[in-house]
Amino acid sequence: MTFALKIIAIYCLLSAAFQGAALAVSGDTFRPYVSTSFSHDSNLLRFDDAVDPSAVTGKKGRSDTIRQLAAGLDIDWKYSRQQVLISAELSDNSYDRFDTLNYQGQDVNARWNWRLGNHLSGVLYHEFNRSLASFADIRGISGNLRDQQTDSFELNWLFHPRWTAGIAYSEYSLEYSEKAQQQGDEETETIEASLYYKTPKGSRVGLKLSTKEGGYPNRAFAISSTVDNGYTQESAQAIFEWNYSVKSRFRFEMAYVERISDHLSQRDYDGINKRFNYTWRPTVKTQLQLSLFQQTEPRDNLLASVSENEGGSITASWAPTAKITISGRYRTEMRTDLNDPGFVAANIVQLEEKNDTISLNINYNPHESVDINASYIDDRRNSTRALSDFDAQMVSLTATFWM
């Protein structure tokens, strides 16, 4: 099937699936679209400079060109005090050199912002995404697809003009298509309770408590196992949002997290997670965002049960005209493995990795029905693990046509 026929087929499928939404009243939006993009990646599989790609892939060279054809739609439908937001996209992705990676992607987001009376409100949410797993940690040319799905429900009660209490429940699942990676398939259920106080100027102070039950359905636990197949995680989080002015806004989060494994107590850990965000809008055409973070993440390797990740990012955007938007971002992160579970009787230095990413994006909107986007990304890693450094540069051009 030609690329043009693929676009038509995907578009017809989406239009048929959501044709009822076209009955939305005036002021609502129903916007189908098709898009095409061309990308070039100088080091697609994220090889170290010292690695010969042909020894792993059987092909010379480490770069690739990717063509994507996509069709989708955006819906924004309002009825009384209710709002339904839906975005859905199907994509066909083709690789020139590593064609075993060709795949059909899916991305669906559905959100119902509901309200009942003057005191009850909430969100009903569904998200599904199918895409290739990252090559930063797992390298191969077999096309390891990753499916992620989230379903959640949130209820907020405004029991006082300044006070809001909330409860939420969510389910999350992660599945890999490659059998070798299915040990990482995960399912979680999370329950949250929150309490917020809102000041007359719109700032907020809040407390959120959560409990998460997680499991790995493809892991069979035995006495000799070095990874667990389930865990419980508790969290207590304090949140502070300060609207300093119309142009400046601060947000600070601090959470105590404790994770307890079902069987392997040496995999247990606790830690303090912190995140700071600052948004500055000096004019209607410019915006600056600063983010700093320090957080713990679970690790299942033989030498570590948790990693400490710290770093930050700075993002700037500028709209010199009504049709052009320019944005740039720099992000850095240092990951340090901690908590040796003691499965290896050796004094080995823990892994440290530094990741740096620079991106530049230009969006041009020559017509209300046309978007043209060009981007450049520089991605680098320095690691204490042998043959794990990499650097890659990516350029892409995307054209989107709204119906």
Describe, in plain words, how this protein is organized in 3D:
There is one protein chain. The chain has 403 residues and is mainly beta. It has a domain at 1-166 and 175-184 and 351-403. Helices cover 5% and strands 62% of the residues. It has an 18-stranded antiparallel β-barrel. Strand 17 and strand 18 (390-402) form a beta hairpin. The relative contact order is 0.10. Residues 3-26 have low confidence and may be disordered.
Write the topology of this structure.
Elements: H1 3-17, E1 29-41, H2 53-57, E2 64-79, E3 82-95, E4 103-116, E5 120-132, E6 145-160, E7 163-176, E8 186-198, E9 204-215, E10 230-242, E11 248-261, E12 269-283, E13 286-298, E14 306-318, E15 324-338, E16 352-367, E17 370-383, E18 390-402
Antiparallel strand pairs: 1-2, 1-18, 2-3, 3-4, 4-5, 5-6, 6-7, 7-8, 8-9, 9-10, 10-11, 11-12, 12-13, 13-14, 14-15, 15-16, 16-17, 17-18
Short note summarizing the structure:
By secondary structure, the protein is mostly beta strands. The protein has helices at about 5-15, 55, and strands at about 30-40, 65-80, 80-95, 105-115, 120-130, 145-160, 165-175, 185-200, 205-215, 230-240, 250-260, 270-285, 285-300, 305-320, 325-340, 350-365, 370-385, 390-400. About 5% of the residues lie in helices and about 60% in strands.
